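Tutorial handout. Part one gives the primary structure; part two gives the three-dimensional structure as tokens.
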Amino acid sequence: MLLNLVNFRAIHPINTTEACGLSTEASMSSHPLAEVKRPAVSFPPSIWGDRFINYTPDNEITLAYNQKQVEDLKEKVRRELMAAAGEPLQQLNFVDSVQRLSLAYNFEKEIED
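Part two.
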């Protein structure tokens, strides 16, 4: 049934402006939906104010400190991973934990060795 309707529409397309008896120019200017004006919405002020809108990232000193801290922690994980090399079960648990934390991409070389 639906396929027949689709085939019928393909053979006999319907022009809605012609079906209404309007030309294209007349349909744009006198169409009732074209003149609808929607009211402006005024939401109440946020309880947070503009605190998050005006967020600025940390200054360069704090950013550099955070990057240094990240590198130090990566090095610590590398040392722990190498220290566990003698005990396969401990190493497997450690690698599993690193992978569950989605940090394995940082230590692919160490995990392969």
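Part three, for discussion. The chain has a mean pLDDT of 75. The chain has six helices and no strands.
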